[in-house]
Amino acid sequence: xxxxxxxxxxxxxxxxxxxxxxxxxxxxxxxxxxGKLLLAxxxxxxxAIVHGxxxxxxxxxxxxxxxxxxxxxxxxxxxxEGFDFTNLPDPTTPENIERTHGRxxxxxxxxxxxxxxxxxxxxxxLYFNLS
Length: 131
Hints:
The chain has a single domain (2-129), classed as Histidine kinase-like ATPase, C-terminal domain (Heat Shock Protein 90, 2-Layer Sandwich), CATH 3.30.565. With 131 residues, the chain is α+β, with helices and mostly antiparallel strands. It contains three helices and five strands; from the N terminus they run βααββαββ. One of its GO terms (molecular function) is protein serine/threonine kinase activity. Keywords: Kinase, Serine/threonine-protein kinase, Transferase.
């Protein structure tokens, strides 16, 4: 596993974008996978910074990634207390359409080929098929 640690500052999202660009170039990742990977991982890191670590600059976000011939896995862990990932509102239902929360995980679910949360909810794993 490769690892990157970031302080909880929004401008550090650019470091994640650069990481994805570098991985994409090194492993010749198809543009379709690259787009999904970039959006989902950036959203996951943004959630970790904003919701998990509550923008507390001294708290860290840990990003681990592993690449095989068949898939790329990203694991994003924040220093927060977690959340109940088993009870997520659907942002597409009429009662939630105006709400600003809940869209990030919905998006990540649709972009990644597989997504897993670990108890207590401060760690998410995103998997993307490369073939």
